[in-house]
Amino acid sequence: MAGPTSFKTDIRPLFTERDIQGMIRAFNLASYEEVKAHAAAIHDRIRGIGGAVMPPPPPRGEGPWPQSRIDLFGRWIADGCPP
Ligand code: HEM
User: Fold this and answer.
1) I need a labelling partner for 68 at 20 to 30 A (CA). Which of 11, 14, 31, 44 fits?
2) Counting runs of H as helices and runs of E as strands, what totals does the chain give?
């Protein structure tokens, strides 16, 4: 991908309505500020570090992300979490 990533274009579309509803008690995955605040913990959990892998496999979720998505989230962090 050319240029820096952004939450609006690259990261927000990764989260499904199911993800957002499933996690709303902890934080809002649709919110730039909240995903930024929890970015390191989210990056860990989508890799299965520190607890069960997120999103959970069926039937509770849509399963672990492909590596390309995990890499994209990591690149967004490395870019400084641009909005
Ligand atoms: C700091 C990061 C995260 C933590 C600590 C976390 C933790 C949890 C916990 C404790 C549950 C409930 C488990 C249970 O019911 O047994 C859960 C459910 C779930 N999480 Fe996460 N999660 C994180 C990030 C994410 C992310 C990034 C996604 C999506 C990309 C996600 C998607 C879901 C879904 C779909 C469920 C199922 C909700 C349901 O059962 O209705 N989570 N998570």
Assistant:
1) 31
2) 4, 0
